[in-house]
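#random but structural
TW: two for the price of one
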Amino acid sequence: MEKPVGIVTDSHSGISPEEAEKLGILVLPMPFYIDGQCYYEDVTLSREEFFEKLDSGAEITTSQPSPGEVMKLWDKALERFSEIVYMPISSGLSGSCATAAALAQDEPYEGKVFVADHGRVSTPLHRLILDAAELIGEGYSGKDIRDILEASREDMEIYIGVDTLEHLKKGGRITPAAALLGTVLNIKPVLKLDVGMLDSYKKCRGFGKAKKAMIEAMEHDINTRFKEYKDRGELYLLAASSASGQETEQWVKEIEEAFPGMEVMCDNLSLGVSCHVGYGALGIGCSCKPRRKL
């Protein structure tokens, strides 16, 4: 028997195949090209292999999934669900969202597939998928869920501290000269993900100062911009990491000490973000519970 509404996302959400099965959602593996060869996240490319290749200086580029791959997964989902909400990586970071939105306007998907341009990636996207699952449980339609998620685009924030400048240089976000000078001066940039765009926020001397700057920025945001949500108990504290397990554990502990009484949801940074920030990056963020329709 078909269920009313299902969720489909991509591996930029950080949701593992095991968790996807547990949640009853479908995840599209993202393609990567490494030295010209195509790999698929969590299918033919493990996290460990990815960082080994990244550290060895391999040429790594992200790619959109083909329309055929997207439609094949939608077809599979529509065998189980009457409607689906598709939650790909933010349109600010990839063209795959716009491609999917165009596909969803044609038969046989019109009125059945609702593409949410939610502005999120990695842990914030993972958290929003859990919010979408709650909305399904509350009986909302696919269209209403899409509209609710898109209306909450600005109700999130994430800061990412970067330990190496090499990959920002490779991606053209900083010049080779700036990268060289930054390495000499031990500059650790903090990036800000706001409504789907990854921008520079602050430059710090040393990673300890970068972590401190991120926590202070998050404290300010929570006590100003997101205070109303925090007071209602509708604010989720998030973390993300491309660092070692030990460094990640220490980072979560520092966040918990800075925000006593708040639970921290932490994921590995998605490989799509990791290829730009490299190994050793740490993130902190928040996401608000989407407002329901009256």
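TW: number two ↓
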Amino acid sequence: MYDKITYDMGWVVQVEKHYPGNYGAPGMARAPKKKRTPEDIARQNERNKVKRVQRLIIMNFKEGDWHLTLTYRKDARPATEEEAKKCIGDLLGGMRRAYKKAGYPFKYICATEKGKRGAYHYHLIIEDIAAPDLNTKEMVMKFWPHGMRNFSPLYKDGEFEDLAEYLTKKETKEGKGHSYTHSRNLIMPKPKREKIHQKTWRKDPIPKKGYYIVKDSVINGINPVTGYPYQHYTMRCTSEEDTHGRIYTGTIRGGPQ
């Protein structure tokens, strides 16, 4: 018997399989165990953080929404961390009020980065709304008068996953840290937990109907603490409508592997 945990986010489904506690299947060979070091724990915590943010992005944003980068003109750079917080806070607060007035929820994930020379800039993931009563790009232009606003549309082909790792990483190449926050209205997918009454699983998993296994997502590893195997993999929807009934107008990139 093993545990199967499924995160169904509509167009993406993540699956994790492992043996409960220190108990593997009867007769199963066991790799040597080792005690976790503080470094092991820190790496695991970081991986878990990346997965949480990845799932937030996948669950709450769609292809065509924005990855927005905000920078300061040289003459507008804040002198202190408090001034920098006020600048980004003014933008987020202004957009929240504008969205609420127009009847839309404002959803975002925001990462603050401080460069080697002390200059701040920001990475945001926000919805793209272009309605008669609200336009996301116009709101950003209005509430960020301090410098450049670079809009890049999100694509499903790996970018959602890559962005999660970037937004949560502890160090940049300049040696400075990231910090990130997000709006409280984001939906976190609830894991479905199952006890599978089989000795083991297929090394090459079979996708459910309407999905394909993402290339290179299948990981068959050994838990260093328990000494027993685990498996992780990701499936993606092959159509423009996912299991949550959400429609995606962009092309489903990547295709079955």
